[in-house]
Write a structure and sequence with these properties.
mainly alpha
């Protein structure tokens, strides 16, 4: 019982610590200085919706691979 209680308290403490963690100055500076994507996607990406953003990125990469495959197979 003591082990279970210790495990619950540890997980709770880690959850609260992670949730309330603030980015350090270097992390904030690095996110501001990230370069923009070099290629413009066919569809605009949504930064606020991470699921849509990941799907849009997957489509962009698939299109890029298809184009490079077509260019490599030209006679």
């Amino acid at each position: 019982m003591k082990t279970f209680l210790l495990l619950v308290l540890t997980v709770t403490a880690l959850f609260i610590w992670q949730r309330n963690g603030k980015p350090t100055a270097t992390e904030t500076k690095a996110t501001r200085e990230m370069p923009a994507a070099t290629s413009s996607p066919a569809r605009p990406t949504s930064d606020h919706n991470w699921a849509k953003h990941s799907l849009d990125r997957a489509h962009a990469v698939a299109d890029q691979m298809r184009k490079s495959g077509e260019e490599n197979h030209l006679p």
